[in-house]
Amino acid sequence: MPGSTVTDAERLEVRRYRASDRAAVVELWRRCDLTRPWNDPGLDIDRKTTRDPDGFLVGVIDGAVVTVVMAGYDGHRGWINYLAVDPDRRGAGLGAEIMRAAEQHLARLGCPKVNLQIRTSNIDAVRFYESIGYSMDDVVSMGRRLIDDEAGPA
């Protein structure tokens, strides 16, 4: 159709993570400020691909990884981790597309509800999740490290 433009969201191919995506995924997480010294992204990839590779999704346009998410289901709740969208492509619907794929994956597993955690300083992420139907739960998130990625297993 003359004058029509194909959007990034329409060009996005969402597929399962491949080992050849590793460097691009880690770099995207770094560009999106998702990595922290106490979470080795390589170890997180290894853990995910060992335990639940089907829930590790990447979105690709023209061979480049532009979005990624880890979705997991523990039998009670689904969890979303490491959602990232190339900062140069934000606002084009890529995050919503890969989240739709993650939610469909979790629904096929029988998952009744999805939870996620957002750093309190990441207001843009809060707004994004609200825009696709998520809302704040009345809970306190707590955690405890069992393995220090910098030091290895105790």
List keywords for this structure.
single chain; 154 residues; alpha+beta; Aminopeptidase; five-stranded mixed beta sheet; 32% helix
Trace the largest sheet across and list its strands. 1-2-3-4-5
User: Radius of gyration from the CA trace?
Assistant: 16 Å
CATH architecture: 3-Layer(aba) Sandwich
Proportion of strand residues? 15-25%
Helix/strand order, N-terminal first: HEHHEEEHEH
CATH topology: Aminopeptidase
Query: How confident overall, as mean pLDDT?
Result: 93
* Main sheet characteristics: 5 strands, mixed
Give me the secondary-structure category: alpha+beta
H/I helix tally:
5
- Structural domain count: 1
Q: How many strand segments?
A: 5
CATH class: Alpha Beta
Uncertain segments of ≥5 residues (pLDDT<50)?
A: none
* Percentage of residues in helical conformation: 25-40%
Gap from first CA to last CA: 62 Å
Q: Please tell me what the overall shape is.
A: globular
